[in-house]
Structures are given as C-alpha cells and as structure tokens.
Amino acid sequence: MKYISIVFCGFVFIALQGQSVSEAPIVNEGEGSYVQLIIRGATLINSTGAPPVGPVDIVIEHNIIKQIQPVGYPGVAIDSARRPQLKTGGREIDAHGSYVLPGFIDMHGHIGGSWQGVGGEYVFKLWMAHGITTIRDPSCGNGLDWVLRHKELSQENKITAPRILAYTVFGQGEMDPISTPQQARNWVRSNAANGADGIKFFGLPPDLFAAALDENKKLGLRSACHHAQIEVARWNVLHSARAGLTSMEHWYGLPEALFTDRSIQDYPLDYNYLNEQDRFSEAGRLWQQAAPPYSEHWNKVMDELIALDFTIDPTFNIYEASRDLHRARRAEWHEEYTMPSLWRFYQPSKISHGSYWHFWGTEEEVNWKENYRLWMTFINEYKNRGGRVTAGSDAGFIFQLYGFAFIRELELLREAGFHPLEVIRAATLSGAEALGMEDEIGSIEVGKKADLIIIDENPLANLKVLYGTGAIKLTEDNRVIRAGGVKYTVKDGVVYDAKKLLEDVRTMVAESKKEGDFKITQPGMKQ
Fold this sequence. Notes:
Blueprint lengths: L1 E7 L2 E7 L19 E8 L8 E9 L2 E7 L20 E4 L4 E4 L1 E3 L13 H10 L2 E8 L4 H12 L7 E7 L11 H13 L4 E4 L4 H13 L3 E4 L11 H7 L3 E3 L4 H4 L18 H8 L12 H12 L3 E3 L6 H4 L1 H5 L4 H4 L2 H7 L15 H23 L3 E2 L14 H13 L3 H8 L1 H7 L16 E4 L15 E4 L5 E4 L4 E4 L2 E4 H19 L11
Parallel strand pairs: 3-6, 3-7, 8-9, 9-10, 10-11, 11-12, 12-13, 13-14, 14-15
Antiparallel strand pairs: 1-2, 3-4, 4-5, 7-16, 16-19, 17-18, 19-20
Helix pairs in contact: 1-17, 3-4, 14-15
C-alpha cells in the first residue's frame, strides 16, 4: 500500500491507495441492450436548442440511436402506418404522455470515499436514479486504479453505474513534492500512461502550472481546476484559460481576475485558511470585491474567457447552505436517503472539509446571498454571450446528496436566469462538449449512444419533478400526490427502473440505521 498526499478542496488529505472503499457489485439490474428498442409516442426535449417535439418514436439498436420519427400531432390519433416496425426480439416502451431527455452529465461527481463511509453502489444508484448517465470524477479520491476498474465495468455494463471519466488530482501517486517544471511534465506523462482521462488542479506555482497544462494539452487530455486561495493571488482564472485549462470549478479565481483596486482578497488580519469558518465566511464577501457587473473590466474578462472557449462549471448547489443553512440541512430526502456516516461527516467539525458550521449566522448568510446574486449575474451573462456553462454537483459535502444535488443545480441555473431549455443544455450537451464527447453523448440524435431519461411529467414546467422524491401536486380530485421522479434511465441502450434503484438506496440506508440505531438529529442534541 502506498500513501499519497492530495490537495483536496484546499486541504491536504492523506489517502491510502487501495484503501477499503466498497466496490460496486457485479449485477444484472438493467434490461438490454436489445436488438431493437423503440420508445413510443414520447415528447422529445432535446439539448440542441430545439423546442419540445412530439409524439415521436425513438428507435435504438443495441446502444446506438438509429431513428427519431415524428408519428403524429398533439391531440390527434397516431397513424400506425407511420410508425417504425418492431423487429423480432425487440422491446417497446409506451411513452405516450411522457417526456424523453438526454442522459444527464454531472461534471463534478466525487464517488464517495472512506472518509464519508459510503461506496460505489450507493453513490452510483443515486446518480442513475436521477438520470445521470455520465460523471467526471474530479480527483479520483478512491485511487485511480479503483476508478478505472469501475470505469471499465461501467463501459461493459456489468455494474449499475454512469459512464465514468477519471480526472486525477495533480501529483496523485507521487511520494515526494513536485517542485520543478520538468517534474510536472514527467508526472503529466505518467498520469496519461496510467489511463487517466484528465487532471484536476487546485492551484500551483505559476511555472509548474504552465508546464503541466502545456504537457497535458500536447497529450490531448483535458483539465479542470478549483483555484484554491493558497495560489490564486498569483494565478487566477485568466492565467489558467490562457494556458489551456479546459474548465474552472466553482468560482474561486474568477472574482480575483475581476479585481481592479486590489490584487489580494481583503482578508481579516486574524484569518487562517485552515479554519473552515474563516475560509467560507470570507469567501462570501469575495464577489463584492470584484468589478461590478457590466463594467469595462468585467466585460473584458468575460469576453476573453469566451474567446478562449473556456468552460465554467459553477456548482451553485454545493455552497447553498452558506446562504440558507436550515434549508440545506432539512432537505426532505436526508431522512431516508442519506447514509448515517455521511450525515455525521456533514456536522460541525474543525477537521472535516465543508463542515464549517462553527457559529454560522445571519451575517454570513446575508453576505452569501449577495455573493450568489453577483455570481449568478456573471454566469447567466456568460451563457448569453455564447460561453459554455455546464452542470456539476460536487455532492457528498455540505449537506448535498448525490443525485438530488444535481437536480438542485438545475434549479439554481434556472434561478440564475437560464431558460429551462438552456438548463437542459447545460446538463447534457454542454457537458459533452467540455469532455470532448459531443459526437457520442449529450443529445438525442441519430448515431449517438442511447443515453436517455424517460419521465411522466414535463420537467420544463417544473424541474422539481426530476427529484427522486418528485414534486408535491394536488390532483383534480383534491388528493396530494408525489408527481414525477425519473421512470426509466437508459444508458448504453440498457434500461434501468429508476424508482427501483432509489428504493434500493432507501433500503441500504434503513439497514445502516438499524446497525447503528441512528436517527438524524440537530447539532448538540443527544442521539
């Protein structure tokens, strides 16, 4: 076994290569792929900018979309003569009155970890239950070998899991610090040879960062960066984009690029970066120190990033507790779907990342609300001018649960000003473009892989129907029901019962609670 030092979200964690993280079991839960699968009579909500179209029949052969055939008009009986014929050995899904979307792409999907006490099956099923068919793991926190093994099993559809792209943390696997540009280039070449799909950076000295990005580009790999405050004063988002970084995560590094009257964040003189409340409290004041929206410098930075084809993956959801702690803590899905070990990880702590609730109060939340207003203004305008914005969750921290957090990210993109069709594009095709996979996934088009979502409610009218728990709805006969929840997730032409996957998770959590006699409580209350 080999110890490795990983800079993770601005902290140094000691991870154990080959650590005891539970594997996803080899199963045969999905059905297919089929010689032919026809989804009949659905309304198609695609990611190409097209408005909804229906009814259509979608023909899939094994894992490839072969035909998308309009078969009639709303409110008019369908002429069966116009419909594609089912081949022997094929399957039909009656989707009349339902909606079909491309499979979602979570651009920031950590696959659990031993520090949270959750493993592969739990995380994967939560993602798949919410229609997430592709994830980018931005750190390979369970070790590159573990992630690549599950990537291969997912490609072979031997496990119930999304498609996985493995982005290692820069320096992962090295016993000694990387201190020269040549060492940085050597590590990048080794990382590619080991099978990684890309690199996740947290900030480096400029000469190392420039060398690593240059070498990574030469190898044809992509990259992401959380511009940690330790290095951002001398290397912000503009430096990264100019050097060839593919995408920025979160928002650190962007306000710093927008500074006009300072070069360093206005830290209090008793600030300590390793104090989580210091770090997150002051981060909530950062956008207020940047150039104001639509000012000359603000426009200049935005225009340059767009010209560089730079991708922003904002992960709005992961910071939402900062502006409304009560809402994030009491999300209704925690009771039945959050593992006890994960719940404990979320609680106030001086050592757990993202557990910065030392004494979080009104002043912090007010600052963060303004932070969001300014941040969202930039992101929405970036999209309006043609910049690429993707959807990522960073779940597993700060009261954000896998799957559910991704849907919350979609709601927050809508809050930022995205039209619902723009939200779907961010969650699908834009992510595929950022991964260099737009010819394979991200939209429902002939020749692409059969990754799709089938749902009985219209998500454009109410994104909440995409939550596994659905949306509360009053029926015509005055009954309160839960409407929505993904019905089927199709990945590589294999059909999964999304509600069954979510029920599996609920059972896992219930069993774990029995073992530990656990219940969710308020901080400071006895269990």
